[in-house]
Write a structure and sequence with these properties.
The longest helix has 12 residues. The strands form 4 sheets. The protein has a 7-stranded parallel beta sheet with strand order 4-3-2-7-10-13-14, with helices on both faces. Helix 2 packs across helix 3. It contains 6 helices and 14 strands. It is α/β, with parallel strands linked by helices. The N terminus is likely disordered.
């Protein structure tokens, strides 16, 4: 029970991003399964947006479609894609140290020029009511704009993200296909936009 109403006990809430160095080894097996499944969706001639995040970082390890071109706001993501021989564009702007993401007005203006066939996004929480959420307003704006510029959006979320809510919404629950590693928890079953990695 909370002042002025009630809240669900199973809902978790996060207000800050852990550093990438802390998050990169968490739920690694689940992230790899999701990432492999996500990479299979990339086809020849796709123009792909890759959001920052540890699961989207794993995605890059599994990409094998040489005919795709990539755009990212992740410094490490851009370097890894380039080292693998892919054509990659890195968005400009302010570097946020904790998530290694480029954010800000310059990033937003860059995104408006692009039209992606597919986009792969990280999230801190997945909620039917609150949608996809992240703690940082600047990162939320970049994610939101990238989703607007993307024909087919995929959110990569391990099962622990379901029912979690963070400070800022960057997309509605039905605005993306959610790729996860196991059957979603009660309350999400029957959702037509959830795909479980095989």
């Amino acid at each position: 029970k909370v002042h002025g109403g009630a809240t669900a006990l199973q809902m978790g809430y996060t207000t800050k991003d852990e550093a990438v160095s802390v998050r990169k080894d968490m739920n690694m097996e689940e992230k790899q399964r999701i990432a492999k499944y996500a990479a299979e969706r990339i086809e020849k001639n796709d123009f792909v947006y890759v959001d920052t995040g540890t699961t989207t970082g794993c995605l890059i390890d599994w990409i094998c479609e040489q005919g795709a071109v990539f755009v990212t706001n992740g410094i490490v993501h851009a370097r890894t894609l380039a080292e693998k021989g892919y054509k990659v564009f890195l968005l400009g702007g302010e570097l946020k140290a904790a998530t290694e993401a480029v954010v800000g007005g310059e990033t937003m203006e860059s995104l408006k020029r692009y039209h992606f066939t597919k986009g792969f996004f990280g999230t801190n929480g997945v909620s039917k009511r609150h949608g996809f959420t992240t703690p940082d307003p600047n990162e939320a704006l970049v994610k939101q704009e990238a989703m607007r510029q993307t024909e087919r959006c995929y959110v990569l979320a391990d099962s622990q993200k379901f029912g979690m809510v963070s400070s800022v919404t960057f997309g509605g629950f039905e605005e993306a296909t959610i790729l996860t590693e196991t059957e979603p928890p009660e309350g999400f079953s029957g959702s037509k936009n959830i795909r479980v990695a095989k």
